[in-house]
C-alpha cells in the first residue's frame, strides 16, 4: 500500500443531487473499494464500533477477503457510525487529495441517504427524536411534565418511550428549560473591556435554546463582561439530526434558510458564534459541501466561530477583561469529536488554561454518544462501551473536581458512564455542560 498524502486533507462536495449518488450498484462498488483499502490498512480498529464490525465481517468470511462478504451485511457497519468524523480527520492517510480518495464518514452518509430515499430511515422513533425544534417548542411549554416523563428510572414512561420511539430506557436524556435561551434578556455590556467594539450573533442552536440554556447564558455573560455586544438569533436547527438520517435535501434547505437570515448581520460586521461543536461543524464545513454554489452559505461559513475559539481569539488579540479567579479544583475537559473535526486545535482546553492556577486534564477521545444515535435502544450499550476509556480518564484517578465536555450531549453521556462505573464510597466529579460555564464561574458571573 502506498504512503499517505502529505498534503492537507480536502473534502469533495456531496453530490446529493446527482442520480448516481443513489444508484445502489455504484454505491456497493464504492463501499467495496473503500472497505478493501480499510481492510488492508486497519489503522482505525479502535476508533468506534464500525471498523471492528467491518474487520470481523472480512475475517469471518469464507475467503478472509471482502469478495465473500455479502453486501447486505454492510448495513451493520453503517449503523455503528455516529458520523463523528474522527477516522477522516485524525487517522486516515488516504483522504483526498490522496489517489485512494477515502472519505469513510461521507460514504456512511451516502448509504444513509440511499436508505432515506427508500424510506427505510428514519424509523418512527428516530423521526420523533430528531425533530428538535418541534420537540423543544412543545416541551418548553410543559417543561416540568416533559422532564418528569423523560427522567431516567421513571418506570411508567421510559419503558413506553422505549417501545414507541426506540429510546433506550436507561439512556440519560437532556432536560428542557421552560425559558428558551433566545427569550432571555441581554446582560449589560462592559464598555471598559479591552474587546469593546466586537459584536457577535449567538446562533443559539436547538440544544442551548431549549435544553441547556445555561450554556448560552454563560457565553453571553462572559462576552458582555469582555465588552462584546451580542444578539441571540435562532431561526431553526442546523439539521445535524437530519444529516444523521441521510435526509440531505432537508439539511440543504436549512443551510440556505439560516444563511439567508444571518446574512444581514454578517454584512453589518457581526461575527457568528456557535455554542455546540456539531452545529459549528455544520455551519463551517458540512453546509458548504452540501450547497457549494450558495454564496450566503460560504459567507456564513467564513464568519462562524466556535465559542471557545472566539474567547481564545479575544484573549490573543485584545486580552481578556479582568476579574478571573481560580476555580476550587482540577478540571477534566473533554474535546468533542466535532470540535476536533473543525481543525482549530483544542480550543476548549486553551480557553480553560486562561483561568488562573488551572489544573487541567485533557481527554481527547470519542465519548461514544454521537447525537441522537447513542440514546437509541440498539446503540446505547455500544455507546457505553466505546465511551469507557473516556469515563475513566475524565475522573483522572479521582483528582477531577469538574468534568466539562464541549459537547453537552457527550457531557451527559460521560456523567452517566462515570456513574455506572462508580465504586462504593467514590465521589464523582461534577459535570458541567460546557467549559464556558467554568469561565463564567471564574468571573463570578454565574453560580
Ligand atoms: S465517522 Fe466516527 S463513528 Fe463513523 S466510522 Fe469514522 S470514526 Fe467511526
Ligand atoms: S479510514 Fe483510512 S485510516 Fe481508517 S482504516 Fe480506512 S483507510 Fe485506514
From TrEMBL:
Record flagged with keyword Metal-binding: yes
Record domain Cysteine-rich: where: 201-284, 331-409
GO-annotated molecular function: 4 iron, 4 sulfur cluster binding; metal ion binding; oxidoreductase activity
Keywords: 4Fe-4S, Iron, Iron-sulfur, Metal-binding, Repeat
InterPro entries per the UniProt record, alphabetical: Cys_rich_dom (IPR004017)
Domain of life: Bacteria
Residue ranges crossing the lipid bilayer per the database entry: none
One Pfam family it belongs to: CCG
The name this protein goes by in its record: Glycerol-3-phosphate dehydrogenase
Amino acid at each position: 500500500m502506498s504512503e499517505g498524502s502529505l498534503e492537507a486533507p480536502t473534502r469533495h462536495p456531496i453530490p446529493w443531487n446527482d442520480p448516481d449518488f443513489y444508484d445502489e450498484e455504484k454505491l456497493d462498488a464504492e463501499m467495496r473499494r473503500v472497505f478493501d483499502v480499510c481492510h488492508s490498512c486497519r489503522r482505525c480498529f479502535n476508533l468506534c464500533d464500525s471498523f471492528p464490525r467491518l474487520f470481523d465481517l472480512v475475517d469471518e468470511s469464507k475467503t478472509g477477503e471482502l469478495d465473500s462478504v455479502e453486501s447486505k451485511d454492510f448495513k451493520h457497519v453503517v449503523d455503528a457510525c455516529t458520523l463523528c468524523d474522527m477516522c477522516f480527520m485524525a487517522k486516515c492517510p488516504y483522504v483526498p487529495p490522496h489517489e485512494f480518495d477515502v472519505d469513510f464518514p461521507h460514504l456512511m452518509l451516502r448509504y444513509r441517504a440511499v436508505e432515506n430515499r427508500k424510506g427505510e430511515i428514519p424509523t418512527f422513533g428516530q423521526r420523533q427524536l430528531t425533530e428538535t425544534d418541534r420537540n423543544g417548542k412543545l416541551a418548553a411549554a410543559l417543561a416540568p411534565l416533559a422532564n418528569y416523563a423523560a427522567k431516567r428510572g421513571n418506570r411508567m414512561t421510559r419503558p413506553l418511550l422505549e417501545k414507541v420511539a426506540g429510546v433506550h430506557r436507561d439512556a440519560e436524556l437532556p432536560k428542557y428549560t421552560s425559558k428558551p435561551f433566545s427569550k432571555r434578556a441581554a446582560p449589560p455590556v462592559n464598555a471598559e473591556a479591552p474587546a469593546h467594539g466586537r459584536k457577535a450573533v449567538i446562533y443559539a442552536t436547538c440544544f442551548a435554546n431549549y435544553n441547556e440554556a445555561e450554556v448560552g447564558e454563560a457565553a453571553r455573560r462572559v462576552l458582555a463582561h469582555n465588552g462584546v455586544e451580542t444578539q441571540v438569533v435562532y431561526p431553526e436547527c442546523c439539521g445535524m439530526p437530519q444529516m444523521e438520517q441521510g435526509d440531505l435535501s432537508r439539511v440543504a434547505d436549512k443551510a440556505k434558510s439560516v444563511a439567508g437570515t444571518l446574512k444581514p448581520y454578517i454584512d453589518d460586521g457581526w461575527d457568528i458564534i456557535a455554542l455546540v461543536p456539531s452545529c459549528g461543524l455544520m455551519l463551517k464545513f458540512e453546509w458548504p459541501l452540501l450547497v457549494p454554489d450558495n454564496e450566503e452559505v460560504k459567507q456564513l461559513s467564513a464568519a462562524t466561530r466556535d465559542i471557545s475559539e472566539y474567547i481564545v481569539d479575544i484573549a490573543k488579540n485584545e486580552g481578556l477583561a479582568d476579574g478571573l479567579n481560580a476555580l476550587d479544583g482540577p478540571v477534566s475537559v473533554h474535546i468533542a469529536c466535532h470540535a476536533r473535526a473543525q481543525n482549530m486545535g483544542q480550543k476548549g482546553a486553551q480557553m480553560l488554561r486562561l483561568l488562573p492556577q488551572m489544573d487541567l486534564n485533557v481527554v481527547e477521545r470519542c465519548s461514544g454518544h454521537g447525537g441522537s444515535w447513542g440514546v437509541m435502544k440498539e446503540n446505547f450499550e455500544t455507546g457505553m462501551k466505546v465511551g469507557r476509556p473516556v469515563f475513566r480518564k475524565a475522573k483522572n484517578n479521582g483528582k477531577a473536581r469538574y468534568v466539562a465536555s464541549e459537547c453537552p450531549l457527550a457531557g451527559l453521556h460521560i456523567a452517566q458512564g462515570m456513574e455506572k462505573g462508580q465504586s462504593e464510597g467514590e465521589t464523582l466529579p461534577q459535570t458541567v455542560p460546557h467549559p464556558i460555564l467554568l469561565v463564567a464561574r471564574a468571573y463570578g458571573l454565574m453560580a
